[in-house]
## 1
Amino acid sequence: MHTLHGCGCHITANVKIVNKSSLLIEVHRAVPHSGIHPYQKKLAECICHLMRMILDHHHHQFAR
């Protein structure tokens, strides 16, 4: 389970490595720090940021 703070929302996601080129990311919770998310786009940015962090974390398991 990965949890991301500090980019406008608190995201909890489960990540499964399907194969060398695929990740399955299940977002369990995405809670904005302000309580109500003003823009859906910001939430998407947070999820993209989380995905980049996960890819960096798991980069050694992927073919370059």
## 2
Amino acid sequence: MTRRVVITGMGGVTAFGENWQDVSARLRAYENAVRKMPEWQVYDGLHTLLGAPIDDFTLPEHYTRKRIRAMGRVSLMSTRATELALEQAGLLGDEVLTNGETGIAYGSSTGSTGPVSEFATMLTEKHTNNITGTTYVQMMRTPPPSTPDCFSACAGA
């Protein structure tokens, strides 16, 4: 049987917003989300203080504590972006996500920075005081099994 890949929707959580209308409007207006990050001045040798933080990210009400307790900020944002893509594609809640024939692809360059720092502390200070049962999963760049798949109940991951 021929396997096909079809991109049916896209989503993102950005400093410009979470939907194409907002992002597009800000790009067309030549807006810039990059700003000086004064809190980074504490890092000796860091030669830039520029960043484009996502300050207004809020979780939807259906993201219950039970479902997100092991998720770091990167996982939460990736899950939300995936949910927005499924919504755009008209697949959110569709049985095609649970019949074993559909998967979700997502990528990230890093996991949540707090847990990465906690593991670095373990290596440099030789203790596990900051490590919890979820630190490792939160540190991973794409948590297994893919958090967006689990959250959307996608069986074909």
## 3
Amino acid sequence: MTALPSLHDGGLSPRLSLLCLVFLLLLPACPASGADLDGTASNHHTVIRAGDSYSNVYGTTNYGDNALARYGTVVSNGGQAVQAFGGLGYGNSADAAYNSVVVHQGIISKNIYGGFADGYQTARSNSNTVVQSGGDISHIVGGNAESGRGRARADSNLVIINGGTTGTVIGGHGSGYLDGAARYNLVSISGGSVTSIVGGSATTTKGTADASFNAVLVNGGRVSGNIIGGLVYTSSTGQGSTARYNAITLVQGQIDGQVYGSAQTDSPGQLVSPLPAAGSGNSLNLLGWQGTLRRVAAFQYLNLALPNGMRSGDTLLTLGNEQEAGTCRAARCASWAPWGARACASGTGTR
């Protein structure tokens, strides 16, 4: 058997040998499978390209007593990663703000965090953004804040889904030993497929878990599971909890699960039950949306806008068999107004 010629064999000319060496040197470096990618030293910006394979990808990171992780960006144009963080702050006091993750294509097999703050005494994850227009993602959190001994807040984070496939989507999550809060977060879906949506979720050990003033907008796409405006975890007997003034707005799209203004769940997150609606301030807004929902609960207010072309006797909303007795099963149009709108709002408001 004849051996393949090497660069030093007479079979290759010196010019061809030189060209081969130059070509090899110009090839882009292939990332090792499972390696991390950190954009802190590259203007806080990283890109996952087709063919890339990483473990953790960071737009920016900061570690220390006062860890500020801001203005980090991760863009996925293909390839795959286990987790992606727009910004990660880890220290005694951690703050992750104004970070973003944008997914056009690719696979994120575990989690995406727009911003992640892990602080021993305090943690804040505010004003972070995740945008997905394609690809396959397991779990999205717009802003995540965790504090082992103090307070954690995840406020004003944004998740936008225009396409692709996604598992659970959470606008903001706050988990603190003394207090955990997730407020003023927004999840918007106009395309793609999502398993479940939570506007904001909060958990604590000794203080108050607050998941209030969050919003979910569905203007297209499909949600195969539940939609919850504010979710609180009952992790201990000494904690307090509140989830008020959350809003869910349905314009278009398919929803196969239940819709709750607010709910509570156990620590593993397996048993979910709606909170009382009376005095909650939660609102369900149907802006031209028509269809069937398995169950609607924990809403004090029901606001209806008639779709174009709706006539007297047409059904606007039908509730499935899981709806508790004593609640309106359908809202119909009569005399240019939704029949029983007030009664139906009152009925769902008691469940």
## 4
Amino acid sequence: IRSKSNEITEGRRREPPLRCSLGPL
């Protein structure tokens, strides 16, 4: 069950600006 983790990683890697919006995560 690594679907959630994979989706989050892909989204963060695909959209670097999203990481800033999320915070220091």
